[in-house]
Write a structure and sequence with these properties.
Layout: H1 5-25, H2 29-44, H3 50-67, H4 70-91, H5 96-104, H6 109-117, H7 125-132, H8 147-159, H9 161-171, H10 175-186, E1 195-196, H11 197-205, H12 210-219, H13 228-256, E2 264-265, H14 278-284, H15 299-312, H16 321-331, H17 335-349
Antiparallel strand pairs: 1-2
Helix pairs in contact: 1-2, 2-3, 3-4, 5-6, 7-12, 8-10, 9-15, 10-17, 11-13, 13-14, 16-17
This protein binds calcium ion (CA).
Residues 287, 289, 291, 293-295, 298, 301 line the site of calcium ion.
């Protein structure tokens, strides 16, 4: 995808007019054009898409052939053959400004370059359009209170009793509320989400780019579009939020030596059985199975991390319903969500 081609082409045109003026007064036109071609191609390689780059190379190559002798042309030819693959790889990503911003904040440039060159990392206009699409759809929370769901939750408690007891004993959080959260979030780890966390957060973080916003806006079907001003406002707010989450994600995956392209989760970037956002993993993640790593796809780690999160926001043994409501509300700012969690927990205690 090329989203900066308009700007890049304007830059090239300005450069050309300046150089063409110098060309008229330059006695050694061939040498000048040779230097010009090298300078322009190198300086623009990062910003141009592959197609434009190839066109520009053809343009400059033709001028050089006309102006220089055979030896000069051969030198340029060898240089271009060696430079083309690297230039075209670097130039196609809509994440170039995001990559530069992350490098500016101390992330390893080599790591970033390799990451964003990975073919699995790409902007996802369809996921973004779903994110911003106006929808009346609501989660059916009643399904989690069915006898079938409650039975699965009771079995889960029996299967993970030692971990749940450990969380309850060390952090004071009831095993039933921990289990209720895992039931609603991921049906006890059986629905973990299929969206690439890297692509989701990178795409959302890049929504401060007006051209990418236009791409997303145009991919939303007209009858599902929100009001444009509301879309713009939400895009900017989500971009700022996702950028912080992307930084947390790269810190987490770097610390745990996980390939950032391999983790999948919700369409909003939450991951694991507990569906934590990356910043919450850094802040509240716990190593439940004591293997030296925090992996929220591991039940022991997920259980202890949920307990730690709830404890941090005020959960205590014997907590009142009202206080419990306030604590769980931090997990998901939805009253029906919190009501459902507390109803499930109550049923599981019985
Ligand atoms: Ca662990």
């Amino acid at each position: 995808m090329c989203v900066n081609s308009k700007n890049s082409t304007l830059i090239i045109n300005n450069s050309e007019s300046q150089y063409q003026e110098q060309y008229a007064s330059n006695k050694d036109a061939g040498l000048f054009l040779f230097r010009y071609a090298i300078n322009v191609i190198v300086s623009q390689a990062q910003r141009l898409n592959k197609g434009i780059l190839i066109l520009k190379i053809r343009y400059h190559f033709a001028h050089i052939l006309l102006s220089c002798g055979a030896i000069g042309a051969m030198i340029v030819c060898f240089w271009m053959v060696s430079a083309l693959p690297a230039a075209s790889q670097d130039s196609t990503s809509p994440f170039n400004s995001l990559q530069a911003r992350l490098a500016g904040e101390g992330f390893d440039p080599v790591m970033l370059k390799n990451l964003f060159l990975n073919p699995d990392v790409h902007f996802e206009p369809r996921t973004m359009s779903l994110f911003f699409m106006h929808s009346e759809a609501r989660v059916n929370y009643d399904q989690f209170l069915s006898q079938d769901s409650l039975q699965k939750a009771r079995k889960y408690i029996q299967d993970h009793l030692s971990d749940l007891n450990a969380a309850e004993e060390t952090l004071g959080v009831a095993k039933e509320v921990i289990t209720a959260i895992m039931l609603v979030e991921t049906r006890l780890g059986t629905y973990l989400g299929t969206s690439s966390i890297m692509n989701t957060l990178s795409s959302l973080a890049s929504m401060n780019d007006p051209e990418l916003r236009d791409v997303v806006w145009n991919s939303i079907q007209e009858d599902r579009r929100p009001i444009k001003s509301a879309f713009e406002e939400k895009a900017n707010a989500k971009s700022a939020w996702a950028y912080q989450e992307l930084k947390a994600y790269l810190k987490y995956t770097g610390r745990e030596k996980i390939d950032p392209t391999t983790i999948h989760g919700s369409y909003a970037g939450a991951m694991g059985i507990s569906q934590f956002m990356p910043s919450n993993i850094l802040a509240y993640g716990r190593d439940g199975n004591q293997d030296g790593r925090i992996d929220l796809f591991n039940p022991s780690d997920a259980i202890m991390s949920i307990a730690n999160y709830l404890k941090n926001f005020g959960w205590k043994p014997g907590i009142s319903y009202e206080a419990a409501f306030d604590v769980v509300y931090h997990y998901n700012h939805s009253k029906v969500y919190v009501t459902t969690i507390l109803k499930i927990a109550d049923q599981l205690k019985g």
